[in-house]
Design brief:
Length: 139
């Protein structure tokens, strides 16, 4: 089932040249960096790094939004998106994600509830649902 936008609130673009060992730039100029394969002597961003950063930031926003509806302050929380890349059972390659969330001062059961609510709300979670394994972990 696809989720259609009812209104476009924001559009951006990024251009890659050279694949994993190339260069990426965003249309607004904020991103302008070389990419490289993981494990090299000179670490560089790679698609998984960029995906992890985007997912962590998006999920943090969703977490804050859902927590606010319950009167919970998550301004000191952290979200770490641990993205794994490897061979998949279809013969190609795939991704998996573990979202590790810490909310200081909030008990684990409430944190778990907020993670589930955020996972239902986050656009990245919606985009990956049913496509890759996403694990929610309370830190």
């Amino acid at each position: 089932m696809t989720i259609a936008l009812t209104k476009v609130a924001y559009t951006t673009a990024a251009t890659a040249k050279g694949g994993r060992e190339g260069h990426v730039t965003s249309a607004d100029g904020v991103l302008d960096l070389d990419t490289g394969k993981p494990g090299s002597d000179t670490p560089k961003a790679n698609p998984e790094t960029l995906f992890a950063a985007g997912y962590a930031a998006c999920f943090q926003g969703a977490l804050a939004n859902r927590a606010k509806t319950k009167g919970i302050d998550t301004s000191d929380s952290t979200v770490t998106a641990e993205v794994s890349f490897g061979p998949a059972d279809d013969g190609g390659f795939g991704l998996s994600v573990e979202l590790i969330v810490e909310i200081p001062g909030v008990d684990p059961a409430t944190t778990r509830e907020l993670l589930e609510l955020a996972h239902g709300f986050c656009p990245y979670s919606k985009a990956t649902r049913g496509n890759i394994d996403v694990t929610l972990t309370v830190a």
